Amino acid sequence: MSQPILTDMQVKMKKALEHTLHEFSQIHTGKASPTMVEAVMVEAYGSTMRLKECAAISTPDARMILIQPWDKGITQSIVKGIQIANLGFNPLVDGANVRVPLPELSRERRQEMVKRAHGMAEDGRVQVRSVRRDAMDALKKAEKDGDISEDELKRCEKEVQAATDQTIKEIGEHLAKKEKELTTL
Questions:
Q1: Which residues form a coiled coil (predicted)?
Q2: How far is Cα 157 from Cα 135, in angstroms, rounded to an integer?
């Protein structure tokens, strides 16, 4: 009976970790990456869609993002979408393409990014702890209902805590790596 609870907990913790890592990938470190702009919302064809759904995004070099719209008519909408997203980029139209040069990060901006990364990591830890609480509650309810024994409850609680500690440790390791990326020039 305890196995579905533990399996569900592991899946949810993995999702919380993946979400946190995805959030980290959106913090730019001065090195160009398509993930920096692919979620930008663009007005196209009478609706709003993600940039990655209406253009090819590449990085020809470490300080430039190149966006090639599949329809030349939405080039200005892409520029407007990037400006509205307030990412700190100044897109330039180059024929049918949009070039996004990355500005050099100042020390203050780097520290701001580090703070943002710490906030994202804390959000991830909170999600993991929430999953732990839900799993513990489900296990205690199962023990109260007589579905699992007290010994099994104790064993499962240790498993839940071990999984929680491991996931939080992974978030911390990725945060340290991101912080090092952001602070090294």
A1: 139-166
A2: 9
Give yes or no for residue 172 having a pLDDT over 70. yes
Q: What is the amino acid identity at position 80?
A: K
Query: Residue 30 — left, alpha, or beta (φ > 0 → left; ψ -120 to 50 → alpha)?
Result: left
**CA dist 62 to 29, 70, 134, Å?**
10, 23, 43
Q: Which is the CATH superfamily of the domain at 2-26+106-183?
A: Ribosome-recycling factor (1.10.132.20)
* Average model confidence (pLDDT) across the chain: 87
CATH 1.10.10.60 at 34-101, yes or no: no
- pLDDT of 160 above 80: yes
Write down the pTM of the prediction: 0.69
What is the spatial distance between Cα 109 and Cα 27, in angstroms, rounded to a whole number?
11
Give the integer Cα–Cα distance in Å for 101 and 45.
Answer: 27
